[in-house]
Structure formats: structure tokens, C-alpha cells
Amino acid sequence: MKNFKYGQPCTEIKDIDVKNRIVQAYYFNSQTIDSDGDIISPDAYTKSIAERGPKSSLPRIKHLFNHWEGAGVVQELGGDETGGWFISKLGRHSVGRDTLLMYEDGLITEHSHGFETIDSSPEVINTKEVRRIKEGVLWEVTSLDKWGANMNTPVMKSLEDRNYWTKRIDTLLKAFNSGTYTDETFELLEIQLIQIKEMIRLFDKPEQPFTRDRAEGQPTSTKADLYKYF
Predict the structure, then answer these.
(1) What phi and psi values does residue 93 have, to the nearest 5 degrees?
(2) Do 43 and 28 form a contact (C-beta atoms < 8 A)?
(3) In contact, 200 and 162? CB cutoff 8 Å
(4) Spatial CA neighbour of 219 closest among 173, 176, 187
(5) 63 exposed, middle or buried (CB, 10 Å; 0-12, 13-18, 19+)?
(6) How far apart are the first and last CA of the chain?
(7) b/e for 11-28, b at 16 or more Cβ within 10 A?
(8) pLDDT, tens only, 85-141
């Protein structure tokens, strides 16, 4: 699948039913040009959904967490003037459980999808040359918890960036203290907190060198130990 790619994240969550483990959210925005200069037509996945979607004879479109692990079972795929949306029932396994808790805690704020391009054509939108994805094979929709504080994160360039990540710390600390995630997820949350702290430190004191060991950090042994980083 050399034409496989991930779509641009979409930030709108339509509805969450915690009791019944149901989430509804957009997985792509048909009005937005992505970082690769692509824009997806509203009906690009109509054929794929009919052939492989939840109402087909051979459902194969998955709901994943961070484009990797299975999070739930897609119940419905549709679209409107904004873009494509999905309804999924989250699983009772550890990933599904933690994904549901992350929705409750406000950690999951974006969604995306993985697809294979079948048909496309060049187009000009507002004087900008773009590639119009007219047809694609939809492989998965995904919930993203924005593990953005890693080695690939762009350097903070403004106070607005700093304020965003400071608020992110508050959200993560709240989830860390009140959440009932699995040990593996707690470790990922902790690593992300350490990474964000390093980003803020470099913004405040840019003359200090950046090292991979410091940025990636290691999980601490207890929740209380986490506060020494902040």
C-alpha cells in the first residue's frame, strides 16, 4: 500500500456516552487542506464504506487508538458538510477502557484516519495548488491523545505555545491523580509530562542544551515522585 497515509487530525467530538461506551466524532474535515497539500472530498470513502464498513457483509474498518491498537468496534460511518464521522463502541479490554477514561478526562481531543489513495487530481484552492483525494480505501479511524511532546515536536516559538502546554500539564496531572488507568498508560502519561516539562524549560532557558536522555526521561516509581518535575 504505497499510497497509504494518515489524514490530518480533526478536533471535533460530536458526542460521548460513557455509560454505554459510545463515542461519536469526526475523523476527517472535508474543508481543510492537510500539511501534505491534500484535501479529501466528502464522498471519497463512500465506496469503501459500502464495501468494508460496519453495515457491509465483510466489515474491516477498525477503530484504533493512536493509529495502532484496537480501541473499539465501529458501529456507523457517515458524513455531513463538515466531513466524515464515526460512531464506535469502545471495548472492555485495557486499551478500550483507558480510551474511554481518556475521553472522560479530556485527554483525547483529536481524531484521524488511515487510508489508501485510489483516485486523485490536482486542483487550485485560493491560489494554492492542492491534490484532491477523490476516492480512497478507508482502513481505520483513530482516537488521538496528542502524544505531541516527543523528539519530533516543533520547538516552542511563542508564549501562546507555552500557555497551551502549561494547560496540557494541568489536564495530565488531573488525569494522573484521579484516573484509574492501567500501569502502562500511567507510565506513558508520566513520560509525556516529563517531556512537556522539558519543552517548557527549553523555552524559558534556551541556552541550556537539549539531550535525548533528559527529554525522554524514565518513569518514576510513584505518583508522588512526579511532582518533583514541576
Answers:
(1) -75, 180
(2) no
(3) yes
(4) 187
(5) buried
(6) 44
(7) eebeebeeeebbbbbbbb
(8) 999 999 999 999 999 999 988 888 889 999 999 999 999 998 999 999 999 999 999
